[in-house]
Write a structure and sequence with these properties.
By secondary structure, the chain is an all-alpha fold. The protein has two domains: about 230 residues, no CATH class; about 35 residues, no CATH class. Helix content is about 80%, strand content about 0%. It contains nine helices and no strands. The longest helix is centred in the C-terminal third of the chain and has 42 residues. It is elongated and about 80 Å long. The two termini are about 35 Å apart.
Length: about 270
């Protein structure tokens, strides 16, 4: 157990360094430079050099002052990283949100018109019901698993995860990490755009980061949804066998899916 805890501690330290501290230090350095430059001299490197020189001259020298400066920079970097973590969680919630409903209705009608124009036959339950493509891709996993097997993916997934082979779990975990990273990229973009109040170049930089995060979110979200759905397709029989449910058709059908849902929901 001590070895496990030590390894977890190393991973947490690596996570803190990679996701919070290093990007946070870069943000703090950018913020200091932006405030020193201001709007009027936003891209004047000579002015920045002069301001940094004057700032260095005003700072008290000595070991104690240096230690306080380093501690302050680390604290500011950590706080900015924690703010980004909160913003990233908000970004992920927005991606799967159902409101504003007017926007959802517009996306739904647009998809319905495209389906009719292309002669598609997909059921209405597959039409958009979230405000983003990412949210709808995640929702489609639930809808398609229910349509095919009668299973509730939300109920089945925690149990199915325990049954997955060791080769499958890292793939899904890696896909989720990439998806989570995309939301953090968007969050850094939002935070950097806030610097635009004091330094206008932060606005386009933040906007570009936001767009990169959106693009990565769509790609990584689609990959994550595909992997989760594939895991259900390939291992649904193992779930039924583990729960003692007979499969007369060799796979879960809606009848067995309803039975499994009742078992997992404890008949609630």
């Amino acid at each position: 157990m001590n070895t496990v805890l030590a390894e977890l501690g190393k991973k947490l330290a690596d996570r803190w360094m990679g996701a919070l501290l290093l990007p946070g230090l870069l943000f703090v350095a950018t913020a200091v430079c932006g405030v020193l430059l201001g709007q009027g001299s936003a891209i004047d490197s000579a002015h920045l050099a002069d301001e940094l020189t004057r700032l260095g001259e005003r700072m008290t020298t000595g070991p104690a002052a240096t230690a306080l400066t380093v501690a302050g920079a680390l604290l500011a970097a950590t706080v900015s990283g924690l703010v980004v973590q909160g913003l990233a969680a908000a970004v992920r919630r927005v991606r799967v949100a159902r409101r504003p409903r007017r926007w959802v209705r517009w996306r739904r009608e647009r998809a319905r018109a495209a389906r009719e124009r292309d002669g598609g036959t997909s059921p209405d339950r597959y039409l958009p019901a979230r405000i983003t493509d990412i949210g709808d891709r995640f929702r489609l996993v639930d809808e398609r698993v229910d349509a095919q097997y009668g299973l509730s993916a939300a109920l089945a997934w925690p149990r199915l995860w325990l049954l997955l082979p060791e080769t499958a779990r890292p793939l899904i975990s890696s896909a989720y990490s990439r998806y989570q990273g995309s939301s953090e990229t968007t969050a850094w973009g939002l935070l950097i755009m806030c610097l635009g109040l004091a330094w206008w170049p932060a606005l386009p930089v933040g906007a570009v980061l936001g767009l990169v995060g959106r693009h990565r979110g769509r790609a990584s979200g689609a990959a994550l949804a595909d992997l989760v759905e594939a895991a259900v397709d390939l291992h649904q029989r193992q779930l039924a066998e583990a729960l003692g449910v007979d499969l007369p058709h060799g796979r879960i059908t809606p009848a067995e899916g309803l039975q499994i849902n009742g078992m997992l929901n404890k008949r609630a």
